[in-house]
């Protein structure tokens, strides 16, 4: 049985599938050629990440397809319900990348409070000629310790983010329509641990209380944060989005950054991905990464082996 891992898969995932008797194809097939390739090569399983889209046209064109797998959490690039209606199993790996995404959130938070993203732009240009000027420009840093982190969406990734925040000595608050409360256990290197209960509160109160806000929600029909919501937040708030593009109104965000209402933003995802707006890319108060939340070796290993385990469990 053949598996097409069109957006790649870790070596550990390939080995697990091959051990289970599967042939793994890692050739990158262009989006418009996926259906033809699947049919011509008798592919039973298509694995994707965020690049390849498996929509109704591919599902209809590939009657031999048995499983569509997403290496990661969000499945907005797959017509999930339609696939299921055609008898195709749809799988993903919601737990594999939580820590990787959470660490990237804190990469953006640290970058924002200490101006690292902007300093790294300007030091190569002016470090030798304007060292004292840059030192003054980046002198007003802020500590994360003792501040309040508002987590919008306290699922697996939100909880992983909460653990890191608690370890740093931050106060954690959360808003989630589906999870009224959750026990978060922080485990230390020596096996000791602490557990704290986080009770969900309203989005409105979170926006008013948080010093920093991080989003961990699936794709939405509308904005979670727009001009109205930004107006209710603390002056100088920091906002990080490592979830999905389109949950923040980027035009409103730029206006808030320019006015000083928002102190900084960290963005791993964008409304017009994969071609983010130039105003976003060039803004001195935005820390930027190109949708790499789950892109660590450790996460990719976990994703690959978990996908392999699910496929073997379903198809034998």
TrEMBL record:
Name by which UniProt lists this protein: 3-phosphoglycerate dehydrogenase
Keywords in alphabetical order: NAD, Oxidoreductase
Residue ranges of coiled coil: none
Domain D-isomer specific 2-hydroxyacid dehydrogenase NAD-binding: from-to ranges: 107-293
Keyword Oxidoreductase: yes
Family as reported in the entry's similarity comment: Belongs to the D-isomer specific 2-hydroxyacid dehydrogenase family.
Key word NAD present: yes
GO-annotated molecular function: NAD binding; oxidoreductase activity, acting on the CH-OH group of donors, NAD or NADP as acceptor
Residue intervals of the D-isomer specific 2-hydroxyacid dehydrogenase catalytic domain: 8-312
């Amino acid at each position: 049985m053949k598996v097409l891992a069109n957006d790649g898969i870790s070596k550990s995932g390939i080995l697990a599938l091959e051990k289970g008797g599967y042939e793994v194809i890692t050739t990158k097939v262009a989006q418009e050629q996926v259906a033809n390739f699947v049919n011509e090569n008798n592919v039973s399983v298509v694995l994707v990440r965020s690049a390849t889209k498996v929509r109704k046209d591919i599902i209809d064109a590939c009657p031999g397809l048995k499983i569509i797998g997403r290496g990661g959490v969000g499945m907005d690039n797959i017509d999930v319900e339609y696939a299921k209606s055609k008898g195709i199993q749809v799988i993903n790996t919601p737990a594999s990348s939580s820590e990787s995404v959470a660490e990237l959130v804190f990469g953006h938070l640290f970058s924002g409070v200490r101006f690292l993203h902007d300093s790294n732009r300007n030091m190569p240009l002016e470090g030798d000629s304007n060292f004292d000027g840059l030192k003054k420009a980046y002198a007003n840093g802020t500590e994360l310790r003792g501040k309040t982190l508002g987590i919008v969406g306290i699922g697996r990734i939100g909880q992983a983010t909460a653990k890191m925040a608690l370890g740093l000595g931050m106060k954690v608050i959360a808003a989630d329509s589906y999870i009224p409360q959750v026990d978060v256990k922080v485990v230390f290197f020596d096996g000791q641990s602490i557990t704290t209960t986080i009770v969900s509160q309203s989005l409105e109160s979170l926006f008013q209380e948080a010093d920093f806000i991080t989003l961990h929600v699936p794709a939405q029909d509308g904005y979670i944060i727009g001009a109205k919501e930004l107006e209710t937040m603390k002056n100088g708030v920091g906002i990080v989005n490592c979830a999905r593009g389109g949950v923040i109104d980027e035009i409103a965000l730029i206006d808030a950054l320019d006015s000083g209402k928002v102190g900084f933003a960290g963005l791993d995802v964008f409304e017009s991905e994969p071609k983010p707006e130039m105003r976003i890319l060039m803004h001195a108060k935005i820390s930027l990464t190109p949708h790499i939340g789950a892109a660590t070796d450790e996460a990719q290993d976990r994703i690959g082996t978990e996908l392999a385990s699910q496929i073997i469990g379903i198809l034998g």
